[in-house]
Amino acid sequence: MRASLPLSSTPTRSAGWLRWLLLACLASLLSACGYNDFQSKDEAVKAAWGEVVNQYQRRADLIPNLVNTVKGYATHERETLEAVTKARAAATSIQVSPETLKDPEAFKRFQQAQGELSGALSRLLAVSENYPQLKADASFRDLQSQLEGTENRITVARQRYIAAVRDYNVLARSFPTNLTAMVFKYEVKPSFAVENEKAISTPPAVKF
């Protein structure tokens, strides 16, 4: 004679199936409303932003040696050298993180500071053209080369960030995913888009 199953096993098994069904429905619903897309695109924006910050920091790290090298030859360019030093100090004093992307004003301040530093560097490199001995210095030429490479990487990083933000913002503004954005507070993110964007994104001229 076969033993009968415990009376409680059937309700327990049914409850287990019900939980799995509810989870499957929830996952399907979240996928359909774009929740998963928001997760992936938000991470893509953060990664692109991190690369922008890293490349700007790389440039900032090059500047002290560049200024000191120029100072050794261009002793009469005090104003230009001080402008670069002050611009670097202003740019590096701004604390940035993924949270900056939630604050358009903070993002704008960061972008403006980096743009001013780009301008100061351009003026410094233009001044160096007046000092043949400086241009012939091996250390200076190496720093110029590193700066040129870094400026190119900054441009690429900015372009990738702009593309990532564009994809994210389209999702946040489109129907019906904009409803998901409102529910989960996925706000649009700021991008590099100001009147002088072309001037800011143009690397300083590096001549040999």
From TrEMBL:
Compartment(s) of residence: Membrane
Keywords: Membrane, Transmembrane, Transmembrane helix
Gene3D superfamilies: LemA-like domain
Database matches in SUPFAM superfamilies: LemA-like
Pfam families in alphabetical order: LemA
Highest taxon in the source lineage: Bacteria
Predominant cellular place of this UniProt entry's protein: membrane
Membrane-topology annotation of the record: Single-pass membrane protein
Stored InterPro entries: LemA-like_dom_sf, MamQ_LemA
PANTHER family linked: MEMBRANE PROTEIN, PROTEIN LEMA
Family membership noted in the UniProt record: Belongs to the LemA family.
Name of the protein in question: Protein LemA
Lineage: Bacteria, Pseudomonadati, Pseudomonadota, Betaproteobacteria, Burkholderiales
